[in-house]
């Protein structure tokens, strides 16, 4: 298989476009597409300070690498969630440190157990029968927004890819989660203490983000979080992959068509969170008197103490 552009050996065939590309032309296309999506959805400009939520995985680390290469002002924020099962948090943090040292990019490391006294697994012991991912999601949303603000950022970018977003949309539609459908979009505006949120990789498949990471020598954790096993989104991904195999481009058309439809809806109605009050403890937006984060960490109010290991400090 030869690259459509230069006839060198191809490293990938982008099936939805029937387009084989070599290493150089794949990377070039990946980066120009990223730039195009950022502009198309007015995500940010070079004047913005962007917090990239990094997890140690291929998507988020590739996003930080790519945005920096494109000349945007980026800071990575990694939250050590305190997931001890299968040593997941410790392992993912190691990859983030490796990445930071290899590319000398700014990444802030925030350990919730150290700073808030409890990690995700401690919160699950409250005996409320909560699902790990819903507790974890609440904590990540709160802290990512809060830490980004503390770092002087005005946008939060996440590495969600086409497979993530299409499976999320699929799940929301089959269970008719109207409110979630309403708030699914690659850019959500800033509102009442919540920073603007963007997903520049929303049209790249998992295969494309992995290849971008591999071709650029980005170290990333291969293991999935142990709590993601059996998650419905994984099943939806399998179903969509079957459809994609039979008819390449299905996932892209499904998501793109949805976004086009959403474009007819006013952008102000897209904010994912309708917080109308401000938490009496921390001042952040909430729908209650005291926000769910402060309730969860009642004896440990938000503490900002980030570990920002630079190579020179370590030496
Ligand atoms: S980290 Fe947290 Fe995810 Fe693990 S517990 Fe669930 S939400 S699966 S992206
Ligand atoms: Zn080529
Ligand atoms: Zn609060």
Trace the largest sheet across and list its strands: 5-4-3-6-8-7
Mean pLDDT over the residues: 92
Q: Judging from the principal axes of the Cα atoms, what is the shape?
A: globular
Q: List the bound ligands.
A: Fe4 H S5, zinc ion
What ranges have pLDDT less than 50 throughout 5 or more consecutive residues?
309-315
Q: How many DSSP helices?
A: 13
Distance between the termini: 46 Å
The H-and-E topology, N to C, reads as: EEHEHEHEHHHEHHEEHHHEEHH
Indicate the proportion of strand residues: 5-15%
Largest sheet: 6 strands, mixed
Number of strands: 10
Helicity level, as a percent range?
Answer: 40-55%
Q: Structural class, from helix and strand content?
A: alpha/beta
Give an overview of the whole structure.
With 315 residues, this protein is an alpha/beta fold. It has helices at 23-40, 58-69, 88-103, 112-116, 120-124, 132-150, 162-174, 178-182, 206-215, 232-246, 250-262, 292-296, 311-314; strands at residues 12-14, 19-21, 49-54, 73-80, 107-111, 155-157, 187-188, 196-198, 277-278, 285-286. The strands form three sheets. The protein has a six-stranded mixed β-sheet with strand order 5-4-3-6-8-7, sandwiched between helices. The chain has a two-stranded antiparallel sheet with strand order 1-2. The protein has a two-stranded antiparallel sheet with strand order 9-10. α2 crosses α9 and α7 crosses α10 (232-246). It starts with 11 loop residues before the first strand and ends with a helix. Mean pLDDT is 92; it is low at 309-315. The structure holds Fe4 H S5 and zinc ion (2 copies). One zinc ion binds at residues 3, 5-6, 8, 21-22, 24-25.
């Amino acid at each position: 298989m030869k690259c459509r552009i230069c006839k060198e050996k191809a490293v990938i065939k982008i099936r939805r476009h029937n387009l084989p590309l070599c290493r150089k032309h794949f990377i070039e296309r990946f980066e120009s597409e990223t730039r195009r999506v950022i502009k198309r959805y007015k995500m940010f400009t070079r004047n913005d300070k962007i917090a990239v939520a990094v997890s140690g995985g291929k998507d988020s680390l590739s996003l930080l690498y790519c945005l920096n290469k494109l000349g945007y002002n980026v800071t990575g924020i990694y939250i050590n969630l305190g997931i001890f099962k299968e040593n997941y948090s410790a392992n993912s943090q190691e990859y983030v440190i490796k990445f930071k040292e290899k590319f000398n990019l700014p990444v802030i490391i925030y350990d919730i157990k150290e700073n808030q006294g409890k990690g995700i697994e401690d919160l699950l012991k409250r005996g409320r029968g909560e699902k790990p991912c819903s507790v974890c999601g609440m904590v990540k949303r709160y802290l990512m927004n809060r830490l980004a603000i503390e770092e002087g950022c005005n946008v939060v970018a996440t590495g969600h890819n086409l497979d993530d977003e299409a499976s999320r949309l699929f799940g929301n539609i089959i269970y008719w989660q109207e409110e979630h459908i309403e708030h699914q979009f690659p850019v959500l505006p800033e509102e009442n203490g919540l920073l603007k949120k963007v997903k520049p990789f929303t049209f790249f498949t998992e295969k494309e983000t992995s290849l971008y990471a591999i071709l650029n020598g980005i170290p990333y954790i291969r293991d999935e979080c142990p709590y993601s096993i059996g998650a419905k989104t994984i099943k939806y991904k399998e179903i969509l992959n079957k459809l994609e195999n039979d008819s390449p481009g299905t996932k892209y058309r499904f998501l793109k068509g949805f976004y086009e439809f959403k474009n007819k809806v006013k952008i102000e109605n897209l904010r994912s969170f309708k917080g109308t009050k401000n938490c009496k403890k921390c001042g952040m937006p909430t729908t209650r008197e005291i926000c769910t984060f402060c309730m969860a960490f009642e004896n440990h109010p938000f503490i900002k103490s980030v570990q920002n290991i630079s190579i020179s400090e370590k030496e």
